[in-house]
Amino acid sequence: SSFVAQGLFCMSLSCCAHRRRCRAPMTLQEGQIGLKVIPPKGGQPSPVAADVGMTGKDLKDLVQDIAKAAPETLLLFFQNGSRNAAKVAVDDAKTLAEQGIEDDATITIRVNEAEVSPGQSALRQSIAKSGGSSYYYAHANEKALPSEHRYVYGGAPAKLDDKTAEEAAVAQQESAPAVPISKYSWADEGDFVCIYVSAEAEGEALAAAGDGKGGQVSAEFGVKTVELRIKASPRDFALVLRNLENELVPEECKHRVSAGKRVTLKLRKRRQVTWSRLVKPS
After folding, report:
1. Backbone angles phi, psi at 139, to 5 degrees
2. What is the SS3 assignment for 172?
3. Which of 46, 147, 169, 201 qualifies as a cystine partner to 183, CB 3.0-4.6 A?
4. Which of helix, strand or coil describes residue 175?
5. What is the mean pLDDT of residues 62-83?
6. For the chain, how big is the Rg over CA atoms in Å?
7. Alpha helices of the chain — where are they, by DSSP H?
């Protein structure tokens, strides 16, 4: 069955075979926690009831309809307490309890753009799996829209208030695929592994980073994942590393911006071993 804390709606794999939202408010059962799930493009969080014994991979299956993307393309981060708490990546292999995810935690969804293609979308997978009975079957034989039909002209533009315009711009920028940062170096520095993105290798990204004091640069660390994002227009720059050689201590990792020179990611090792490579081959 599905459960909701404090009378909110929820989603659950067991009761909602088609993952529709339940309409009858219920309470959480023993062994379950209530989560607030924020979709990739932001907006209001969706309440979700989850078993503390489920793994991070199971959680991706549970929230895939909120994300509107296939589970294998999702990156999940959790925050216990307030939305200002540190974000920590959700480990696919460990249970929610093992990772310390608490009741009322916030789950933020990111879609790894590098792994998403039109053929891999939830819509296409549904059609491939269910054929004519797919909810999306009307799209099965859709064709590319001719360029002359892609634009509509006429009418004066409606002025948005400043707040709405700003929110719309942020949403549009966050939904656009990021430009991958592909040129970087790294070194084993004893207790830490350091990753360097230099101005010589990634000049546009470093120019967008500035001195980093205006929030242009952010980094999120997981046990075996790292994501660096540099805000820019019209598209952000991003370095996403998954399946690192060894485990990190996420809360002791940090980033530093040296204006006009480099961005450094300082990764705290969980075990004192020498890294022979940064990422394990898939």
Report:
1. -95, 0
2. helix
3. 201
4. helix
5. 87
6. 21
7. 56-67, 122-130, 162-175, 203-209
Cα separation, 161 vs 34, in Å, equals: 35
Tokens matching residue 244 = 């690192």
pLDDT attached to residue 131: 55
pLDDT over threshold 70, residue 107: yes
In angstroms, the CA 274 to CA 271 distance is: 9
Question: What is the spatial distance between Cα 117 and Cα 215, in angstroms, rounded to a whole number?
Answer: 30
pLDDT of residue 135: 46
Residue percentage of the chain with pLDDT more than 90: 52
Token reading at 87: 């974000």
Q: For 129, list phi and psi in degrees, rounded to 5.
A: -80, -45
Sheet holding 88-89, edge to edge: 46-51, 32-38, 105-111, 74-79, 88-89, 217-221, 226-230, 237-241, 179-180
DSSP class per residue in 178-219: PEE----EEEEETTEEEEEEETTT-HHHHHHHTTSTTS-EEE
**CA nearest to 216, candidates 201, 202, 206:** 206
Greatest CA separation found in the chain? Answer: 65
130-161 residue pLDDT tens: 655 544 444 445 555 565 555 555 556 666 55
Confidence at residue 189, expressed as pLDDT on a 0 to 100 scale? 92
Q: 278, 245 in Cβ contact below 8 A?
A: yes
Residue pair 104/37 in contact by the 8 Å Cβ criterion: no
Among left, alpha and beta (phi > 0; psi -120 to 50; other), residue 84 is alpha
**CA 224 and chain centroid, separation:** 15
Amino acid 149: pLDDT: 52
Q: Which residue has the tokens 């590319």?
A: 144
